[in-house]
Design brief:
With 175 residues, the protein is an alpha/beta fold. The protein has helices at 13-21, 41-53, 66-72, 82-92, 100-120, 141-159; strands at residues 2-7, 27-30, 59-62, 77-80, 125-130, 163-168, 171-174. Strands 3-2-4-5-1-6-7 form a 7-stranded mixed sheet, sandwiched between helices. The radius of gyration is 16 Å and the shape is globular.
């Protein structure tokens, strides 16, 4: 089972993804960079809330190496989320101001690695992502770049999944 769960911010997608995995031992893959608790206490509180509701039987891996985690998976995986992963890989290359084509090439190469590993993964995998294509066009270049790239990432990952679930206002629509 490979399921991509998408939806807007605070739509209930992470809770739905956790429910899909259930209470059996699993690995939660946190793709974002750990928060600076002093500089961003709201983000830290949000991460703490996610940790607190996960079963004690789940392990946690904090990494941007999704392809590596997928290749070595021994338990079901919940990857949360592709949006923070995308941000982290662009940050790691300090590529926000690079030529758009170069950033696209970087992201597509990393996405292709993830998709290849996802297809080979023998464990159940639930991936969470944000749906960013339903709103206004961002004013700033970085916002437009992120929106466009996440749309491409989502399409490629969705093509490798068995199901895609859209979560809106806590309701799930299987696409």
């Amino acid at each position: 089972m490979r399921i991509l769960v998408t939806g807007g911010v605070r739509s209930g997608k992470s809770t739905h993804a956790e429910d899909l995995i259930g209470g059996a031992p699993a690995t939660y893959v946190a793709t974002g960079t750990p928060p600076d608790r002093e500089q961003d206490p709201d983000w830290a509180a949000r991460i703490d809330a996610h940790r607190d509701r996960r079963p004690a039987s789940w392990g946690t891996v904090e990494t941007q190496d999704l392809a590596g985690v997928l290749a070595e998976a021994r338990d079901p995986l919940l990857v949360d989320c592709l949006g923070t992963w995308l941000t982290a890989i662009i940050d790691a290359e300090d590529a926000w101001d690079h030529d758009s084509d170069a950033v696209h090439d970087l992201v597509l190469a990393r996405t292709d690695e993830v998709v290849a590993a996802l297809v080979r993964c023998e464990q159940d995998v639930v991936l969470v992502t944000n749906e960013v294509g339903l709103g206004v066009v961002p004013e700033h270049r970085s916002g437009r770049l992120f929106r466009d790239l996440l749309g491409v990432v989502n399409q490629r990952v969705a093509a490798a999944c068995d199901e895609v679930h859209l979560v809106v206002a806590g309701r799930v629509l299987r696409l």
